[in-house]
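Colleagues,

For the teaching module next term, I've prepared a clean inverse folding example: a structure given as tokens, and then the sequence designed for it. I'd like students to try predicting residues themselves before seeing the answer, so please don't circulate the second half yet.
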């Protein structure tokens, strides 16, 4: 079998790799006869097949690298969105009361300092809900939360009418 001999020789000479030789055995373009013209055709066929295999390998590798890069990019973008959302949430919780949505003690203190620094004066109104513990104990925490939200909304509207801010300083103190 002259085709097999030519293939083995090409592999030994380093013209072909073992896998390419197996590919050519499975997919031969033509068969070899004894003449020298046929050997030239077979040699050209082997070179072209090797080049095609190298190109296919390169394109496959390029495709895999591109897919990996795309997946990494998508993961990075998703992680950035998660991080930004977490940062916004952490900032909100650091300065606002989660139940009423009003500024908390920290933000209230910062706003008072800003007001005093800019105008030199400020007026404040403090409110403490008497017997609030009894509302929680008798009607439950859901009812207590509803009372705090309602009072917070009223305090916010009251302060906004006068150009001020309302804040929840602690449990039942505004």
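(Answer key — instructors only)
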């Amino acid at each position: 079998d002259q085709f097999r001999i030519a293939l083995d020789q090409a592999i030994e000479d380093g013209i072909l790799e073992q896998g390419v030789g197996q590919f050519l055995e499975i997919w031969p373009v033509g068969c070899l006869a004894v003449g020298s013209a046929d050997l030239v055709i077979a040699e050209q066929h082997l070179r072209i097949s090797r080049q095609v295999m190298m190109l296919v390998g390169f394109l496959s590798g390029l495709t895999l690298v591109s897919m990996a890069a795309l997946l990494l990019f998508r993961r990075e973008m998703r992680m950035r969105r998660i991080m930004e959302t977490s940062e916004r949430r952490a900032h909100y919780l650091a300065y606002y009361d989660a139940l009423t949505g009003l500024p908390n003690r920290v933000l209230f203190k910062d706003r008072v300092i800003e007001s005093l620094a800019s105008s030199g004066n400020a007026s404040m109104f403090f409110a403490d809900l008497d017997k609030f513990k009894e509302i929680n104990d008798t009607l439950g925490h859901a009812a207590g939360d509803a009372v705090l939200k309602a009072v917070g909304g009223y305090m916010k509207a009251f302060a906004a009418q006068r150009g001020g801010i309302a804040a929840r300083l602690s449990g039942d103190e505004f």
